[in-house]
Design goal:
Largest sheet: 6 strands, mixed
Distance between the termini: 25 Å
Structural class: alpha+beta
Number of domains: 1
Oligomer: single chain
Number of strands: 8
Radius of gyration: 16 Å
Helix content: 25-40%
Number of helices: 5
Shape: globular
Strand content: 25-35%
């Protein structure tokens, strides 16, 4: 299984768990922690590496600083390049941004956040939107469809109208 296939499988498992019982999650941090747990439990993603500055690290990190945005919810570092860079300057293979809301909203802050991540064309990008209640779902979905990038596609949509995951592949965003 490739690194990205492992990430995709974990995202699917997260959405499935959320659909089965959304009340297991009371905050965005709960969602992030659960996804982190899923990611580090995959054999493919369990390797550790030594960086250029001689620090041993794994591939999965939360609140990681990227080139154009201060912090991303979750990242998977690029194992092919990990020895070439210091720990805080690593190239990222995959970014995951999570939004967990009571009421969905697609405002200027969301547009700015998405733009900052999309501008980094080196990584796969996943945007996970989870809603505690499906009210306003259709309006949010339509707004998201209207504002998504031309190379962004719906990766996963829940049957319960409470989760959408979009994805941008790096080769399409360059």
């Amino acid at each position: 299984m490739s690194y990205i296939e492992a990430v995709e499988q974990c995202i699917k498992e997260l959405i499935q768990r959320f659909e089965q019982n959304p009340n297991l999650f009371t905050s965005e941090s709960d969602v992030k922690c659960y996804l982190y747990h899923l990611l580090i439990s995959k054999d493919t993603l369990q390797e550790s590496f030594v960086t250029k500055d001689k620090k041993r690290t794994n591939l999965i990190h939360t609140e990681y600083p990227t080139l154009l945005r201060p912090l991303v919810d979750l990242v998977v570092l690029d194992p092919k390049n990990i020895t070439k860079y210091a720990l805080q300057r690593q190239r990222v293979m995959c970014t995951i941004e999570i939004k967990f809301w009571s009421t969905p909203h697609f405002d200027e802050e969301q547009k700015k956040l998405r733009k900052s991540l999309v501008d980094e064309n080196q990584a796969y990008k996943f945007f996970i939107y989870l809603l505690k209640k499906p009210s306003g779902w259709q309006d949010f979905r339509e707004e998201l469809a209207k504002n998504k990038e031309k190379n962004e596609h719906f990766f996963l949509e829940s049957a319960t109208n409470q989760a959408i995951v979009t994805k941008i592949n790096p080769e399409l965003s360059q």
